[in-house]
C-alpha cells in the first residue's frame, strides 16, 4: 500500500513554523521580512504564480510587494529597478518572475540580482555557492522542497539509488546535486537522465527514489518503476477537460493511475511538490532576513 506525500499539509506545517518565528522578531520591535517580486507583462501563469507567492508571504507575516511592468519595458529599465532593490534596506529578498519578454536577456537580468537577495537562487554566484556547499547559498526552490518533503516523512535516502529524469537548471540538475550531498538527508547514489539517455526505463527501474521533471504529461508508466520506489512527480500540466467546471484537469509527468500502487511513497499532482516550492521561497527570504540582521 502506497502513502501519498502530502505537500499541502507539510507546506502548512512549515508556514506555521515560519509565522511563529516571524512573530518572535516583530514582537521584539523588528520589521518583518520583506519579499518583493518583479512581474513583467501579462502572462496569465506568471500573474497567478506571483499572486500565490504574495498570498503565501502575507500568510506568514512577511511584507510583500510586487513591481509590475508592461510587456515593452526595456532591459535597461528593469536593470534600474533591480539596482534599486539591491540597495533597498527595506527589501530582504526579491525574485524576477520568468519567463521575460523575448527582447530582455533573462541571464543579464538574473545575474544583476545581488546574491544576498537572490531568494530564487538563480544567479551564477548563488549556483556556484550552492554547488560547493557554501552555507550562504539560497537553494533553488523546487529541489529544496523535494528534500524538505523527504525529510519531513523521514524517508531514508542514504545509500539509495536516486534517479533524476530531467536536467533543467531550476529542477533536475540542482535536485541531482542536492540528493548526492554528503549529509543525512541525502547521500544518494545519483543518476541524472535526459532526452538523450538510452534505455531510460532500464535506469528508472533501478531507482529507489525517482524524481521526474521532464514536462511531459503522464510520461512515466508502471513498467518504468521499481516496486516499492519513492516517486516524486515535479511535472504539472493543464489538460483540457470538458467534464470539469474549470475546463481542464491537472496531471503530472507520472501516470499515477497505474504507477501509484507500485510505490511506497508518491507525490500527488496537484498537492505534492508544488506547495513546497513556494514555501522554499519563504524559507529563503527568512534566511536572507536573518543574515542581514545577524540573527
Ligand atoms: P525543462 O523543459 O526545462 O526540462 C525538461 C528536461 O526533461 C530536460 O532536461 C529534457 O532533456 C528532459 N526530457 C525531455 N523529454 C525527455 C524524455 N523523453 N526522456 C528523458 N528526459 C527528457 O523543464 P523544467 O525542469 O523546468 O520542468 C519540468 C516539469 O516540472 C514541467 O512540467 C514544469 O511545469 C514542472 N515544474 C513544476 C514546479 C513545481 O513547483 N511543481 C516547478 C518547476 C517546474 P534535455 O535536457 O536533453 O532537453
Say which CATH homologous superfamily of the largest domain is assigned: NAD(P)-binding Rossmann-like Domain
Output the CATH class name of the largest domain. Alpha Beta
Named once each, the bound ligands are: NADPH dihydro-nicotinamide-adenine-dinucleotide phosphate
What is the β-strand count?
11
Q: Roughly what percent helix? A: 25-40%
**By helix and strand content, what is the structural category?**
alpha/beta
What can you see in these coordinates?
This protein has 295 residues and is of the alpha/beta class. The protein has two domains: 30-114, Leucine Dehydrogenase, chain A, domain 1 (Rossmann fold); 141-274, NAD(P)-binding Rossmann-like Domain (Rossmann fold, 3-Layer(aba) Sandwich), CATH 3.40.50.720. It is built from ten helices and eleven strands. The protein has helices spanning 7-26, 44-59, 75-87, 106-112, 124-132, 141-152, 172-180, 200-204, 256-259, 273-292, and strands at 3-4, 34-40, 63-69, 93-96, 161-165, 189-193, 209-212, 229-233, 237-240, 248-251, 263-266. A six-stranded parallel beta sheet has the order 1-11-8-7-5-6. A three-stranded parallel beta sheet has the order 3-2-4. α1 (7-26) runs parallel beside α10, α2 (44-59) packs across α10 (273-292) and α6 (141-152) packs across α7 (172-180). The chain starts with a strand and ends with a helix. NADPH dihydro-nicotinamide-adenine-dinucleotide phosphate is lined by residues 142, 165-168, 170-172, 193-197, 200, 213-216, 234-236, 273-274, 277. The site of NADPH dihydro-nicotinamide-adenine-dinucleotide phosphate has 24 residues, from α10.
Amino acid at each position: 500500500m502506497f502513502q501519498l506525500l502530502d505537500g499541502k499539509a507539510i507546506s502548512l506545517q512549515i508556514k506555521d513554523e515560519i509565522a511563529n518565528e516571524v512573530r518572535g522578531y516583530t514582537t521584539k520591535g523588528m520589521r518583518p521580512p520583506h519579499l518583493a517580486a518583479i512581474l513583467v507583462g501579462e502572462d496569465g501563469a506568471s500573474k497567478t504564480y506571483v499572486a500565490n507567492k504574495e498570498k503565501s508571504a502575507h500568510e506568514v507575516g512577511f511584507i510583500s510587494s510586487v513591481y509590475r511592468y508592461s510587456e515593452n519595458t526595456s532591459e535597461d529599465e528593469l536593470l534600474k529597478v533591480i539596482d534599486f532593490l539591491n540597495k533597498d534596506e527595506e527589501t530582504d529578498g526579491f525574485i524576477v518572475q520568468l519567463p521575460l519578454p523575448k527582447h530582455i536577456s533573462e541571464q543579464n537580468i538574473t545575474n544583476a540580482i545581488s546574491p544576498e537577495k537572490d531568494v530564487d537562487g538563480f544567479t551564477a554566484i548563488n549556483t556556484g555557492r550552492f554547488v560547493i556547499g557554501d552555507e550562504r547559498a539560497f537553494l533553488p526552490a523546487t529541489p529544496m522542497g523535494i528534500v524538505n518533503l523527504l525529510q519531513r516523512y523521514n524517508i531514508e535516502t542514504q545509500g539509495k539509488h536516486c534517479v533524476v529524469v530531467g536536467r533543467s537548471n531550476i529542477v533536475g540538475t540542482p535536485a541531482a546535486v542536492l540528493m548526492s550531498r554528503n549529509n543525512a538527508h541525502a547521500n544518494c547514489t545519483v543518476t541524472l537522465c535526459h532526452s538523450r539517455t538510452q534505455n531510460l526505463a532500464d535506469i528508472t527501474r533501478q531507482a529507489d527514489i525517482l524524481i521526474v521533471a521532464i514536462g511531459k504529461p503522464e510520461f512515466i508508466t508502471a513498467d518504468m518503476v521499481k516496486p516499492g520506489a519513492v516517486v516524486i512527480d515535479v511535472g504539472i500540466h493543464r489538460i483540457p477537460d470538458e467534464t470539469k467546471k474549470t475546463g481542464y484537469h491537472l496531471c503530472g509527468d507520472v501516470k499515477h493511475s497505474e504507477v501509484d500502487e507500485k510505490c511506497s511513497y508518491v507525490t500527488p499532482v496537484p498537492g505534492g511538490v508544488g506547495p513546497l516550492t513556494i514555501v522554499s521561497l519563504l524559507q529563503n527570504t527568512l534566511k536572507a532576513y536573518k543574515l542581514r540582521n545577524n540573527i
